Amino acid sequence: MRMINLGCGAHSIDGWMNVDSRKTGDNVIVHDLHQGVPFEDNSIDVVYHSHVLEHFARSDATFFLRECYRVLKPGGVIRIVVPDLEELCREYLKNLSAVRESGTAANVLNYEWSVVELIDQMVRREKGGEMGRIWRKPFVENDAYIEARMGEEYRRARAALVGQKGEGPKGLWARLRQTLGRRAIGDAMRKVLLGDEFEPFTLGRFIAGGETHQWAYDRHSLWALLDETAFVDIQFTDHLNSRMPNWSAYRALDAIGGKPRKPNSLFVEALR
Q1: What are the strands of the beta sheet with 3-6, ordered from one edge?
Q2: Taking the domains of the chain in order of start, what are their residue ranges?
Q3: Is the full-model pTM beyond 0.70?
Q4: How confident is the model over 65-112, as pLDDT tens digits?
Q5: Which CATH superfamily includes the segment(s) 3-84+217-271?
């Protein structure tokens, strides 16, 4: 079996061919997926990518999926995980209704988070955006709600910020000041060199870095995109089930302790 994990980030898998734009592990192939999928035609049994497709512009998504189709063997499986636009919208509308009916502090906080979750990654102009500002707070008032929404991503971010050994707010702010100080020195030098071009350069560099979401998908639009790309037997599933061979060995890609690794996700599989 030849299996590839595209845009793997920190979740590379032993025995798979892991690909990312950065060297995130010893077993990771560095490659820009905007240039295609770096494997031969009809050579791969399983293609997997999680929270990758939304980082492609809508006009580039078809090219990327055609590349996935090209490298798959006939009958090969593709498994795609993306943020679920329908679920995000339903959560926002639920919280909007709740805050209009009762403007309690909890309802306001959850409403404000649902707006951030829906919009921030599409419009942010700096690393972390509005989501990062909330996660960097020493104390997050609706911590349990955000963790339920974001899963491991939030838990890892908070652990990194507050420290694995109970660093606490004082240590957190010391490290933030250190990081911001280094960033300020670098930005000051660039401002001198670039002058009026500094802000466009900074924004362009950030957008080109791939952090922002370029599109969003629901059940209809994702099905239509796969159908357009000639995939067949398109089926929506969940974080626990898959048509991948030996999925139980790899379920940790999408599930931790029976719960989804990224709770606000849409899971789909199709065959070549």
Answers
A1: 28-30, 17-20, 3-6, 44-50, 72-83, 265-271, 232-237
A2: 3-84+217-271, 86-208
A3: yes
A4: 999 999 999 999 999 999 999 999 999 999 999 999 999 999 999 999
A5: Vaccinia Virus protein VP39 (3.40.50.150)
